[in-house]
């Protein structure tokens, strides 16, 4: 049975949940909020999973948003066995425990045996109730001034569910032959059930913490940022995989935007002969003018990317962007630098995996000439000396890096000359704007000669592309 607030406060409770979902980075419009209210009138409020899936159907747009949503749902609609009065929190009191064991040193072993039985049976509802009992019995830490503390690691350390895999496999397989498809299915089932139990323990700890410290406070710490809000400089492998799926549409939009800026209008030069011929019908007055059709070419793009260790996550993303942009520009030339510059276009042939290309750049590209620390001034000078012709009146220049020079010459005049020769030039910086110019950052000086844009995550890149 789900923990439900009294009907008088149900609308306010839903409003708080929708607001929390929106603050977590999931866009929720007014129409979606209205649909969520409608969901409460058509689902069984005592069926927690039905409520979970119903609200998800109207509030979410992408599968990647589901983990964030599930964390918030567990905080706002916690598991319980009785309704809660208006404004009250469900503390889980009065729930019927799945255990009837003495409180002694053998408690952990008795609970392990119970966990093994529940994992073998695979009843998700019973497993969640057991997780609540386990947190209550094994997850308590030292009390704090704000109340009792609970920790998921204490429960998982005491029960060690990963050590039950062999027994679970034996129980699921029975007399079936090992090594075949049946064992593969059984192993996958075991992994899923153990993962579900761990998630239930973490959700229960969050619920108890939220009851003491408030849902809003816990939500800010418990909810992991969505992939498009993760800072490039802190992105993990899983984040990059999600970002890769977002790169292609962004690259397409960026190409269209840059291409549109080349068009002076829908019409080309005046066609004098057709205009004069048409004016004969109006007494020689050129009421209607005729123009030659304007041929719009794909724009050319030059990318200068800092791939030093300090911006490793950002450079990984920007090189993925470079690969995707090649499909939408007539010519894309990519250059990477640390304290020297080398052209890396050859590593991004069509069909090449980006991870492999980045690995080859690290091994083969001549981007380090001295000590391997960023030297923007030297990198710009090497580029200007060897590839000056790469930037011209048809070229869009895109610089990617944090602008931290390690207190070396920034090479602002060289960059300014490149910007003057380019059709358009932009610099995407993964550091917060408040840090520009601090320490060894020359971003504020570069910003005087080039359009410097804060681009810490995919959401900001989307804003840049939209407003370009």
Please tell me about this protein's structure.
A hairpin with a 3-residue loop joins strand 4 (331-337) and strand 5 (341-343). Helix 1 (7-23) runs antiparallel to helix 4, helix 8 packs across helix 9 and helix 15 (376-387) crosses helix 16. This protein has 3 domains: 1-90, no CATH class; 97-215, no CATH class; 237-262 and 297-467, Rossmann fold (3-Layer(aba) Sandwich), CATH 3.40.50. Helix content is 50%, strand content 9%. It has 18 helices and 8 strands. By secondary structure, it is an alpha/beta fold. Strands 5-4-3-6-7-8 form a 6-stranded mixed sheet, with helices on both faces. The protein has a two-stranded antiparallel sheet with strand order 1-2. The two termini are 51 Å apart.
Q: Classify the fold: give the CATH topology of the largest domain.
A: Rossmann fold
| Overall geometric form | globular
What oligomeric arrangement do these chains adopt?
single chain
Radius of gyration computed on alpha carbons: 30 Å
Main beta sheet: 6 strands, mixed
Query: Beta-strand percentage?
Result: 5-15%
First-last Cα distance: 51 Å
pLDDT average, as an integer? 79
Order of helices and strands: HHHHHHHHHHHEHEEHEEHHEHEHEH
